[in-house]
Amino acid sequence: MNLAGRLRPIVAALTALAASVCVARAEEANDYPTAARAEYVYGCMKANGETRSAIEQCSCSIDVVASIVPYERYVTAETALSMSQVRSNLGVQFRTSEQANAAVNDLRRAQAEAEVRCF
Where are the domains of the chain? Predict the structure, then answer.
C-alpha cells in the first residue's frame, strides 16, 4: 500500500473531527432562541431607527452579545433589568442584588463591545 493509501483514513478521521468541533462551537455560539434574538433586534431597532442598516447593525449586535454572554446569564440580566423597574419592595430587591447587578454589568459590557463592533 502506498503512502496516499495509508494517509487517506487518517485525513478522513481528522476531517470528521474538525467538522464536529466546528458544529459544537456553532451550537455554543447559537444557544440563544430565535425569539430572544428577534426581541433583542426589535428593541434595538426601536432605539436606533427602523432602517435596513439598523437591522444589520442590531443583528450584528445580538450576535456579539451571544458570543460573550451565555444565554442563561442574558436571561438573568434581562429579568433583573425588567424587575428593577417595579416600584415596590420587589423592585428594590432586584436593584440591590449583587447577582442581578453582576449579570446586568456583564450584559452592558457585551453591549458596549457590540456597539464598537457593529455601529
Answer: 1-30, 31-118
